[in-house]
Design brief:
7-stranded antiparallel β-sheet, about 25% helix, about 40% strand, signal
């Protein structure tokens, strides 16, 4: 009985689920993933802060993916995003934070929903903490 209880607690732990999904940093200039990290509670918390600051859809027809770093964060479990003014109500399974290396364009998000849809949005929170967590300059 104790063994079953211990195994149930081990497999229901949020830490176990997070450990299976890696956070990746992609560099568009190098055209490859340059770093991977464990998907820690700190990264999940930062991802939630970013999602909470979504201000609307990206209005540019085709935002540039040149000279950027993209931080891919799987959301475990998926997070609910409701942004009524932009008509967004979805469960987000994965977020890609696009961080331009130079220029005046602020960072933006590419979101993948549980329903396999893609949403491109702006957000207002600083990416300073995220950059520290994934060791970006």
């Amino acid at each position: 009985m104790w063994l079953i209880l211990c195994l149930a607690l081990f497999f229901s732990s949020g830490q176990t689920a997070l450990a299976t999904e890696q956070v990746e940093v992609f560099d568009s200039d190098q055209q490859k993933v340059i770093a991977t990290f464990d998907n820690t509670p700190a990264l999940q918390k930062e991802a939630q802060l970013i999602l909470d600051s979504v201000s609307g859809r990206v209005l540019e027809f085709n935002p540039s993916l040149d000279h950027v770093r993209v931080v891919k964060i799987p959301l475990v479990p998926p997070k609910r995003l409701t942004q009524r003014s932009a008509g967004i109500e979805a469960d987000i399974a994965e977020m890609f934070v696009v961080i331009p290396k130079k220029g005046s364009r602020p960072p933006w998000l590419i979101l993948h929903t549980k329903q396999y849809e893609t949403i491109v949005v702006e957000f207002s929170v600083s990416v300073k903490t995220l950059k520290e967590l994934v060791k970006l300059p």
